[in-house]
Amino acid sequence: MKLCFLLTFSLTFLLSGCGIHERIIDEVQIIESLGYDREEGKVKGIAIYPTFAEKGNVKLKIYKTVSDSYEDIIPRMNAKSAYPIETGKLDFVLFGKEYATQGIEDVITNFARNPNTASRMQLGIAENKAEDILQASKHVNLSFHLSEKINQNIESGNLPKMNLHMFLNNFHQEGRDPILPYFILEENQIKIDGLALLKNDKYIHHINLRQSLILKTLIDGSQNGQYKTKITQNKKKGFILLKNMDAKTTYTVEKSEGIPSIFIDITIHGEIEKASSRFDLKKDKDIVKLERILNEHFKEEVQRLISLAQGYNVDPIGLGEKVRANSNKWDYQRFMDIYPKVKTTVHTNFQILNTGIEE
Amino acid sequence: MFKKRRMRNNKDKQAVTENSQDIGKLFAKVKKSSDFKQFPLTDEAGHLIISYYNTLVDQQQLQLKILMVFRETPYELDRLEKIDDIKKIIAIEDIVITDNRKEAESKLLKGYAILQMKENDQRVALIHLSNDKAGLREQNNVENEFSVVGPQIGFLENIDVNIHLLRQQINTTDLITKEVNIGSTSNTRVIIAHIDGITSEQHVNTMTQRLQNIDFDVIFDTSQLHQFIEDNSLTPFPLLLPTERVDRAVQALINGQVAVLSSGSPYVVTGPSTIIDYFISPEDYFLPWILGSFFRFIRVCSVLFSIFGTSIYIAVITYHYEMIPNDLFGSLSISRYNVPFPPVLEVIFLELTIELLREAGVRLPTKVGQTLGIVGGIVIGQASVEASLTSNVLLIIVALSALASFTTPIYKMSNTIRFLRFPLILFASIWGGLGIVIGIAFLIIHLTRLESLGTPYTVPFYPFRPEDLKDSLIRSSYSKTSKRPNYLRPKSIWRYHPHNHKKKKSDFDE
């Protein structure tokens, strides 16, 4: 009993001084999105914070600040805020293209180290300036909508699975380069326009949404997504929109020593959502023909994407990882040298599950 | 039986013999009371003197069985030569002949009449005329442990009726009742019931010994006895199970527990009990086992919610806003927007309001109580939110946890749950989530160290008894619960043999 008493008291007095400071929900200023830009050699930070004054009426507001390096962006914003700024609910970090070309490692590793920030946070790269995108997002008046935008597109669109955790995994892994969603402004509305390819922590190039679906099938095997393409069937030209692309990809590394060659086998089950009325979709014969056309098309697209990536010397698919998994002697440095020469053979097997029109 | 009591009570045997000499002294003392009556039965003064407490005896019996005999048929007197012959004349079964003053005194106070052949005769007859039912309530509906399905019979203040109720269900000679008198002033009859051949001797002996060691003046209720005999008084948990339901007491006895009944108390205390007993409602056994298990599980969950609901609210709102889902963040933030207090004060304010309503509701008459519930629950709750004293999310949590604490079938346990919230609230307000974990650790350590009549309180979870899990968190089908729980160490393990009626007969001539 005495011990119990002593323990309680010592815990009360010793632990209460241990820096557990109160962060009462309505007495902190959470920020939901953060943007970093480079302007004339300085770093500009933009933070979006929600204010919940009235019921059902969220207002997004913006803090902006400029500093000569990124570290004290939040402390500088803190000086403008009525309540201490907390990053615990931060779930979207956007980098301007200029910032990203110079490297985002500092920011990322610090978020990774901070136990308050979520590892399911989303990252992104803005086409021009992060400030423009965030400024435009302010008018939406819906909290956390930027990260929701990414999550929604992962769930039902063309983006592969990603978040801070997966970014860090790709970033630290030998044999795969990270990818991030690429944001543009279209008619002053924010749009995810494909994926940005990074080498280590630096922006290299970006691909469009159609290519990002191809990349999605190559990375995790998609289950959804929409894909529009122009085809020629029975000498008729037209567009076709595929949906619910359920893809499985298997990689076979044929030769792991020397210059490896990789056999990629993709099976895609898709549905035709919309098609030009000129196409014949009723007879089995036509469907089979269409499948053959699409097969060819996907094969080309995959090859094109891989050669594009090899051209920029980035490896978003993780071909290096496949080789690493199949080799006894792994030398990342050497692999990076031979990466552009890695041979890939693609085999696709496209099956049309149904041609039903829109749901 | 009385001999035993005397043996225990005689601090000085000499005093007893000395006192027994003098029954006159007893009369001198009791004559001071106005309701004490003493008169000769016949016309002859100083002969056949009857003495009794007017208020304790049944007047009708006195007139029919004694006065009629001696007044109307005087020839009977001839058959009466010495006091021992009284049994032949008076048609009352319980007549004791004694010359012991102590015994005479205690029986006089229990409603016996003292009959002396001559004045100052030391050898007297004690005639049982007591009126047990006077002043006791007659209705025995279950009030506090109500169930929708099943019998609604509860125990009464009358201990003989209670035993009668038990005997109706346990219709065997193996149901043994042992009587102990406790209370230096009240001299209350306390009965220890168990089933011979099932209940472990150890439990019966422990219970008997603990009851016999009680030294107290007036025993009002079994719940009082409960406090004297439980293994550890430094705990908010009830270590023996008090129940007013007959089926519950019978179930306990059948499983091999001991029951203690006390005169004047409608509650029967059974033991040894485990923590899971407090979540079991007799209704579980009347519903199909799937439903029974489901509701039992809901009960356990709601108790956990009731204990931890408000403290988790405090921890999350004060320290761990990160774990609030994005969609909920806005509404939580808005609900606290105008509240000037820190979350702890807010919670304590609201919890105390609810406790206050509950206490007041218990004291008030039923009809006023309902009004109070509405006034308290709706008006005060709504008004305090409007006045920004509390947030409405918290109001929901507090109201829900108050509601959830009522789901335990045993009232004593729901009191415990009410109490347990407060230390956890304090822990949560000081250390947040860590505090709750510390609180849970304390709670678990405390629970596992508790014992009920020497049996671990948390069995079958700790110590782990997989065999006995069948009727713990889930109520298994009757074909699975044919064995008595092992931790009660019953002398015979089988309650019934399920394989005998396993095959469902579908045709009558099968």
From TrEMBL, chain A:
Pfam families registered for this protein in UniProt: Spore_GerAC, Spore_GerAC_N
A single GO BP: spore germination
InterPro entries (UniProt xref): GerAC_N (IPR057336), Spore_GerAC-like (IPR008844), Spore_GerAC-like_C (IPR046953), Spore_GerAC_C_sf (IPR038501)
Gene3D superfamilies for the chain: Nutrient germinant receptor protein C, domain 3
Record domain Spore germination protein N-terminal: where: 23-183
Alphabetical keyword list: Germination, Lipoprotein, Membrane, Palmitate, Signal
Residues annotated as domain Spore germination GerAC-like C-terminal: 193-356
Membrane topology category: Lipid-anchor
Any one cellular-component term (Gene Ontology): membrane
Compartments, record wording: Membrane
Family designation: Belongs to the GerABKC lipoprotein family.
Protein name from the UniProt record: Uncharacterized protein
Organism expressing this protein natively: Fictibacillus enclensis
Lineage: Bacteria, Bacillati, Bacillota, Bacilli, Bacillales
TrEMBL record, chain B:
Keyword Transmembrane among UniProt keywords: yes
Keyword GTP-binding among UniProt keywords: no
Regions that span the bilayer: 297-321, 393-411, 423-447
Single GO BP term: spore germination
InterPro entries linked to this entry: Spore_Ger (IPR004995), UPF0353/GerABKA_families (IPR050768)
Cellular component per GO, a single term: plasma membrane
Domain of life: Bacteria
UniProt KW keywords: Membrane, Transmembrane, Transmembrane helix
Family of this protein: Belongs to the GerABKA family.
Protein name (database record): Spore gernimation protein GerA
